[in-house]
Amino acid sequence: MPAVYIKTYGCQMNERDSEQVVRQLEARGYTLCHSEEEADVILLNTCSVREMAEQKAIGRMKSLSGLKKRKPGLVLGVLGCMAQRLGPELLDKLPDVDLIVGTQKFHEVADYVDRLRAEPKHDPLVDVAEQAGSQNTIREHTLEAKQVTAFVSIMQGCNMHCTFCIVPSTRGAERSRPIADIVAEVRQIAAQGIREVTLLGQIVNLYGRHEFPAVDGRSPFVQLLHAVCAVPGIERVRFTSPHPIGFKKDLVQAFRELPQLCEHVHLPMQSGSNRILKAMHRAYTVEQYLKLVDDLREARPDIGLTSDIIVGFPGETEADYLATRDAVAKADFDNAFIFRYSPRSDTPAATMEDQLSEDAKMARNQDLLALLDDIALRKNQSIVGSDVEILVEGESKNNPLRYAGRTRSNRLVLIEANPRWLGQLLNVKITSTTGFTYYAEPVLTPDTLEMTTV
Length: 454
Prior knowledge:
Oligomer: single chain
Helix content: 25-40%
Number of domains: 4
CATH class of the largest domain: Alpha Beta
Strand order of the largest sheet: 2-1-3-4-5-6
Structural class: alpha/beta
Largest sheet: 6 strands, parallel
Number of helices: 15
């Protein structure tokens, strides 16, 4: 059987898209392999959010030219956001590529691969066209044995047009799947042992705002949350990534009403300066953002809050940066991803005046990271000794003698490996932390002892 190797760059949406491609190829008789040397088909699913991600993918594909010469029948494909952005232009950079498929045509990849393999002498195949209904095509799963968590794509595209972001041009306009279709997918994977789902969308909490009406004061997204949380077998529900403007009262209330909804929100702030937020087209003020943080913590006092922040946006003065630093301290995040502003072609910010030097960006990046590390250290130490619930997901990436799980607030916890705990919700006591990773021991209860006994 022909073997396929797929490498995914970027966000969870890309991971979910890759899973769909693998599922469809496996249905055609392909097997998934774990090295390029073994493969008959190599696919790179790419990201365009930052230039570095594109350069990594281009460099990786260029390195495969030698392998293609040794294996003339090898099919090389570029999928996803970079494929969508550059289209046929990629052939100038990557002349050995056979297939270029954009973000709305993942469901066509298996057909295209079959066609290319059936024609030893072929021209490159490029498809970056838009397709109505493409949001409904990412719906099948390839689940591994003992897998207990899964991503569920609920929408595609983005209408926000932040001035630094290329996503609206690579993913298209907002398009949402019907609630009934999403719930049917969740029911299917719950029946296969999935206990936690993460709902995915570019601006996930704006789901359905153009297609579906509010009902009894609940937005389409909150209606979806209630429906998914009601699926038998689903014990945890998460979502990513939201936008602050999508957090209305009904969504904050959902954190009070839905026990399955995990107390964790990744809430991109991007800047703590109102002047910079306006230049970014973020449509909220820092005061509104911090009020939302307070509202979420009032609804769920134990909620974990993480964020994205950009430093060095064009025109960012020292005063603007200090305002961001102050807002980060007030928000008291559990963690945050700090990005140095990276110009992306065809975005308004790329041509703005007062672009900052890389040295200035790096200095602010390091200063803000130091502040976040101080906040995280204080929070981490305060958790040591407490009892928490984790969902044991599988073997630790770095230590086969430990299993990894996550708390409801999305903290990574390591425990000793015991096969009886795999896939279980387990109460543990945090014994120590090294930073953003925690070590724990099971809390001995009758249920735990039963799981421990072979």
